[in-house]
Fold this sequence. Notes:
The structure holds two protein chains of two kinds.
Chain A: H1 2-49, H2 52-60, H3 62-79, H4 86-98, H5 117-152, H6 157-170, H7 174-188, H8 206-244, H9 247-254, H10 259-296, H11 302-312, H12 315-343, H13 345-348
Chain B: H1 3-17, H2 21-38, H3 40-43, E1 82-84, E2 88-94, E3 97-108, E4 116-124, E5 133-139, E6 145-152, E7 158-164, H4 169-180, H5 185-190, H6 198-202, E8 221-231, E9 237-246, H7 262-298, H8 300-315, H9 318-329, H10 333-342, H11 346-360, H12 363-370, H13 375-411, H14 422-431, H15 440-468, H16 470-473
Helix pairs in contact in B: 2-7, 2-15, 7-8, 7-10, 7-11, 7-13, 7-15, 8-11, 11-13, 12-13, 13-14, 13-15, 14-15
Amino acid sequence: MGYGRYIVVRVLNALLVLVIAVFLVSLIFSSVADRELRAQIEEQIAAQMKNPELLKIFSVNKTARDIWYQTQKEILYKRYGLDRPLLQRVMSRAIDQLKLDMGKSHTLRSATGSSDVSRIILEALPRTILLFTTATIIVTIIGLILGLKAAQRAGSMLDKSLSIFALITYSFPMWWVGMLAIILFSYYLDLLPSGGMTSIPPPEGTLERIADIIYHMILPVSTAVLVSFGGWAYTARSVVLSQFQEDYVMAARAKGVPERKVLYKHVLRAAAPPIVTMMVFGLLGSLGGAMISEIVFNWPGMGRLYWIALQEHDVPVLLGNTTFSIILYLASLVIMDLIYGLLDPRVKVGAQVAV
Amino acid sequence: MRWEDFKASLSDFWFEFRREKSGIVGMVILIFFIVLAVFAPYIAPADASAHWRDVPYWQNLPRAVPPAWTNVFSTKKKPPHLILQPASTDVRQMGQITENTFVFEYDFTYDDYPTDLMLLISANITDPAKPPTLVLTATRPDGTTVDLVSTKLAGSGVGEQRLLISSLKDFKARLVGFAREYENPEVASTLEYQLIDPMRILFSEAKEGIMTAKGAAPLKGKYVFTAKVYTFNPADEISEPKLVMAGKVYGLLGTDTLRRDLFSGLVWGTRVSLAVGIVSSVLTTLIGVIYGVASAYFGGWTDEAMQRVAEIVASIPVLPLLIIIFEFYKPTIWPVIILMTLFSWPGTNKVVRSMGFQLKEMQYVEAARALGAGGRWIILRHMMPQILPYVFASIALGVPGYVLLEAGLSFLGLGDVSRVTWGQILHDAQGSAAALNGMWWWVVPPGLAIAMLGLSFALLGSALNKILSPKMRTL
């Protein structure tokens, strides 16, 4: 019961944040989008006026031209909803975004040639998730193992060099490390592909295709791992180390529990929830970095979509991509919350926990 | 706190800080960046930042070349960037026509060829219909003389003109003609005209192979360039001629594809990163501290409501939202800072709030309240001094995040476009595929600067943490 209620509260919280964030985005965007829409309408009317039949009439009758222009403008304003007050338009835009009804892109197309914004983004989304989750899983494993080892031998060479490494990589832009990796491994050593998700053309056969994608993932994933694992390990180390100073550890040791068991059965059990909490922010921070890194590696995910949409000033795609990024971000947050709930026994029994 | 106490605690602090090696290292790096930022106008050209996007401003530099010091590590010496002043000047009047002769001498002792040949000249022309004519010839060390170009200068206006001689069709045609006399006719006929480099011909030994990259051998020695400028009106003035040998290496950090000096960009970019990082972090921490202390002090429902709001702000994804705001409103640097702080204060708030709750239960706070102290007094006099040490560490540790965020947004091509930032340099590098083409001098320095600036604050912050919060010392 406790866990169920916890989950419901977390999901509702995420949904509330989603609505607020999307509303904010719609508000920011509306003023600018309206200006653009007005310009488009002008263009559309101007194009219609080139009709020779109309031109013939207008050359005789100037007032007819003005009236025709005015009515056309009103019709189009009504069709695009420009006749309604700003707040109403912001609301309806936010609702459209939340329904994933994101309209048509200006210039960008999906791989199948569709100009449907949500289709373009849904094509990119799984690729971002693939890259990001792969990197996250590897970082978690390496980080935990190294963190535990360092905590066991606090003050050792391993511990010290891990702290220094974490400090140094803490301030490295992931995407810049990606550029360095390309210079080293693609340009000078010519070992790995510099970018893209598949070879061009992609190889025949499912297995070959999977191998090809993995081959292309090596560089972006190792970049993300290299930059992130130090911080994760350091976090795990600090939490575990502070647990080592608790009385229950001394008690366990005193009654003769083997050191391995103390670490894995007692300390890790207690350290897991705070580790997860601290890692949530690291993870969400690296999501942004990972998305920017996609640009460097020409990985056709949401980050690169941002880059292209920004360069082409394709506003509907930009907006849709933002909504999807917010969803992705909040979904990761909820997943971390779920893991936290599983690890923290207080959640399961429904005790008072800061939800 | 009295002044004596403050002085005493400061000297205590310094005594402890001196023993933190990492903190000292961080401080040294930080001072280096501060010096760069403060003295930017003296270290780099004073107007370089304002002209970063002004393409003509940089036209006298070579295009996309590595730093000059790379020559030290290479057995093949590349020509540096040289601006030659005339070795001798002569003016002859022939009726209405004036002949200005400028002789330039170039000692070519390198194993590679200059990238471009440019003539800079100031001309004051009275009649635009009668533009001056330039005839440029070169005498090579082997005694051969090549007519390089004969062309009209722009006829109107006053001021410096810039003629990119090496890109003129006439220049290439004449040098190819010169090379054909020596090159194996079979080879010459199969070569693709596009791929022939006229600068290579000009500075190569006159023998077979002169037209190909493989066959050409640099002809070292003194080259004499004679520029004759004819004006057709006695009132016309020609002055300050300079011949630019655009090198294959340049300056401390080389140039990018728009011929911009990357060292200038790096130096000027320090200002933006430092300002954004420090100001954002200070602001965020202040907001977070005030919010957190207030939340803890009031407690109860107010605290509940304030923490709800903070939690919502904390889970708003910053990057996507900032991308949208930046794209539509194109803010300059100060709004950038405010926008970045608006979404990031909840972290500090959370820590400060829990500290505040502990402090609130302290007996001296209770005593103050019993004596009739008001809320503001208790917060300022009794709670803040305890929280302050944490604040300093938190500010320092917050800076790298903002430096990274600003760099990331600049890298996406957003942010303040009126000045140069490290992120923008990397944005341009990405746009020109610098990494794919191995142009490390364009990619490495800005990113390293971001990383080092972040590192300096991370080191300072962790040292402060160790000194100011004794609990950390045992860890």
